[in-house]
Amino acid sequence: MTEQEQNQLIKYLFETAKVANYKKGTVIIHEGCVSTKFYYLKKGLLRGWTYNDGKEITFQFLFEDQLFCATESFFYKSSCSYSIEIIEDSVLLYIDREEMDMLQHDRTFQTLFSKYLISRVASYQQLLISRIQDKPEIRYKKLFQASPEILLRIPQHYIASYLGITSVSLSRIRNRR
Fold first, then answer.
1. Is residue 168 part of a domain?
2. Where is the signal peptide, in residue numbers (predicted)?
3. Cα–Cα distance measured from residue 1 to residue 7, given in angstroms and rounded to the nearest whole number
4. Helix, coil or strand: residue 13
5. Cβ(82)–Cβ(49) under 8 Å?
6. How far apart are CA 99 and CA 93, in angstroms?
7. Is residue 58 a part of any domain in this protein?
8. Number of C-alpha atoms within 13 angstroms, CB side, residue 160?
9. Where in the sequence is the domain holding 67, given as residue range(s)?
10. Each residue of 40-56: b (16+ CB within 10 Å) or e?
11. pLDDT digits (tens, 9 = 90+) for 9-33
């Protein structure tokens, strides 16, 4: 999806959007609940996480200018299998499911949204393959190369959780660079 197409999609989605300001530590999507909002992250930083053996496991970071929702929960009205938490004070735009349903009748919107979904699927496939093939050190390097300034904003224990390692192991990886 091109930047122009994404901007057009954002315009479609959020012409009538509501704005919400959230403080660091706020959980906006709760595991076990049905999520009814589709978001655009205008400012801030978020993480997706779930519990495994009593520990929080971070599986995703969301940065400025990203669209997101709890896909399965939002579209199928099912319980969400993870949580989304605000890592730093954030500004989000959102629409609810009924507004999204109305947009589905617009052909231009359908085309743009299909391109968006395809780009997200491709991104998640790359993430999955990286988790299977790459050691934590390689995944850290890829994350750092993609957005070095962002890594300075993410607490080390969240990055370690994302990589599936301890904070001590992450410190070793950082010191080797």
1. no
2. none
3. 10
4. helix
5. yes
6. 13
7. yes
8. 15
9. 3-105
10. bbbebbbbbbeeeeeee
11. 888 788 888 999 999 999 999 999 9
Beta bridge partners of residue 57, listed in sequence order? 50
Question: Greater confidence, 42 or 147?
Answer: 42
Q: Beta strand pairing status for 37-52 and 55-62?
A: antiparallel
Alpha carbons 70 and 31: distance in angstroms, whole number:
10
pLDDT score for 127: 86
| Cβ proximity of 136 and 163 under 8 Å | yes
User: pTM of the entire structure?
Assistant: 0.86
Share of the chain above pLDDT 70, in %: 99
Q: What is the mean pLDDT of the chain?
A: 91
Q: What percentage of residues in the chain have a pLDDT greater than 90? A: 53
Residue 98: CATH number of its domain: 2.60.120.10
Q: Rounded distance, CA 60 to CA 39, Å?
A: 15
